[in-house]
Design brief:
Elements lengths: L3 E5 L3 H12 L3 E5 L6 H8 L4 E3 L5 H5 L3 E4 L8 H8 L4 E2 L1 H7 L4 E6 L4 H14 L4 E5 L5 H7 L4 E5 L2 H5 L8 E4 L14 H8 L11 E5 L3 H9 L5 E8 L6 E4 L2 E5 L4 E5 L8 H16 L4 H10 L8 E6 L2 E5 L6 H10 L4 E5 L9 H10 E7 L4 H7 L6 E4 L2 H11 L5 E4 L12 H13 L2
Parallel strand pairs: 1-2, 1-4, 2-3, 4-5, 6-8, 6-9, 7-8, 9-10, 10-11, 11-12, 16-20, 17-18, 17-20, 18-19
Antiparallel strand pairs: 12-13, 13-14, 15-16
Helix pairs in contact: 1-5, 1-7, 5-7, 6-11, 6-12, 13-14, 16-17
């Protein structure tokens, strides 16, 4: 008798999981609490996969042998509570994909910088001529690629939500960039639970694998010291010291691996800003671990064009620069953005608050922000923290309203920065929608 696989959520990852499960002869059923996009319906229909939308049929779901859920569905959702109470195994799409591939996995997580590092690492591997797929939170579904477009290597961006439901999956190279408070609403507002989630990227690693991490992150340093980590460790930081495998010395990046060392001028990096220095070090170490030639790594680090919605320059209007950092969905990401911009700033921030502590950016806001624009359905938390700390504060409930307010408030030589600190789901479909609306409104000024 065929095992029954139920997929909750019919987006990119859910549809990919359904296709792979169907290929492996599971009895597959897909259920989405909301509407399913037409392209995903077509993908399911063309493969004979049953689905439902705009609600869950409990009997069809709770009859599963295993459930794969979208990373966006919290365990607190009613259908999840019933599945958990019944003791049903709950997996991520990544876990399913890992069952059916022996490809080399470079997996990247962190509170900030993971998309840039993932895409930069993928760019280096592509430049080296390797057969590599891009998956996880970027690129296409890993399960879909394993089913229908397999690759020898994968570079996979992993969120804490994906890691939570991974059990047997193994990362050949695990990259942990940083850990700062984020998504605490999904972790009972307990930081250690979020930290433990991030460290699941090391699950199942062996002495043949590699662990690349930022050595100056106090949480990572503490956890790495107290945990039994079997894989080879490649810590990196900005300033050279004993034990580091990546660092900057005399304005040159140096990467030390078993096979050979790599050195290049820091100014040659295409990505600017201190946060991107960390990303470049992590990607460069990963590439060296798999023996990519030095000249290929140098060239790829020099010609990478960046990631949409992450410190993305949009336009200069009346002497004011507009920068789209919509991917900054937590406070620490905004901190990096504020540090990177050299001019005075009109900061657009707000959205779905995830239990944010804005004290991390308070000093930078006081020092560098000319005006604040709160963009959200409910801006009360922002007002409670920032009122009285910046002279000019405006509210907006649409992107057009926010950009128009920025246009009025910004002075020549300043920068209008969209760096929200918050999730986008109160007013937008996702952070891409928020960033695209920002760009459109700016270009229409």
């Amino acid at each position: 008798m065929r095992k029954r696989m139920v997929i909750l959520g019919a987006g990119e990852s859910g549809t990919g999981a359904a296709v792979l499960a169907r290929q492996k002869d599971y009895d597959v059923f897909v259920s989405d609490a909301g509407p399913i996009q037409s392209r995903f319906k077509e993908a399911l229909d063309s493969r004979g996969i049953s689905w439902e939308e705009n609600g869950h049929t409990e009997a069809s779901i709770l009859s599963a042998d295993e459930i794969i859920k979208s990373p966006g569905i919290p365990n607190s959702a009613p259908i999840m509570q019933k599945a958990i109470a019944k003791g049903l195994p709950i997996l991520s799409e990544i876990e399913l994909a890992g069952r059916y591939t022996s490809s080399f996995m470079i997996c990247i997580t962190g509170s900030n910088g993971k998309t840039t590092t993932t895409m930069l690492t993928h760019h280096i591997l592509k430049s080296a001529g390797l057969d590599v797929g891009l998956a996880g939170n970027v690129g296409h579904s890993l399960a879909m690629q394993v089913a229908e477009d397999p690759h020898e290597y994968y570079v996979v961006e992993l969120s804490s939500f994906q890691l939570d439901n991974m059990y047997s999956f193994r990362a050949n190279i695990a990259v942990l960039l940083n850990i700062t408070p984020d998504h605490l609403d999904r972790y009972d507002y307990q930081m250690q639970k979020y930290v433990d989630s991030k460290f699941r990227i090391l699950r199942n690693q062996t002495s043949a694998d590699a662990f690349i991490y930022w050595a100056d992150d106090p949480i990572i340093a503490r956890e790495a010291h107290r945990r039994n980590i079997p894989s080879s460790q490649y810590p990196f930081a900005i300033k050279k010291r004993e034990g580091l495998k990546g660092y900057v010395d005399n304005n040159r990046i140096t990467i030390e691996t078993i096979n050979e060392n790599l050195s290049m001028n820091r100014e040659s990096l295409s990505l600017k800003g201190e946060h991107n220095l960390y990303n470049s070090l992590a990607a460069g170490i990963a590439a060296k671990v798999i023996y990519i030639k030095k000249e290929i790594i140098r060239n790829a680090l020099s010609d990478f064009t960046g990631v949409p919605h992450r410190m993305e320059y949009v336009a200069r209007v009346r002497g004011v620069d507009y920068v789209n950092d919509s991917k900054a969905t937590n406070v620490n990401s905004c901190w990096y953005a504020l540090k990177t911009v050299c001019s005075r700033i009109v900061l657009i921030m707000g959205g779905t608050d995830k239990g944010n502590d804005y004290s991390e950016i308070e000093a930078l806001v006081r020092e560098k922000v000319h005006a604040l624009i709160f963009l959200g359905a409910d801006n009360s938390a922002l007002h409670r923290f920032f009122d009285g700390k910046v002279d000019r504060i405006a509210d907006a409930h649409s992107m057009n309203e926010a950009v128009q307010a920025a246009y009025r408030l910004a002075e020549k030589g300043q920068t209008v920065l969209l760096s929200p600190c918050c999730a986008s789901f109160d007013l937008f479909k996702n952070y891409e929608d928020r960033g695209n609306q920002f760009k459109s409104c700016v270009l229409n000024l």
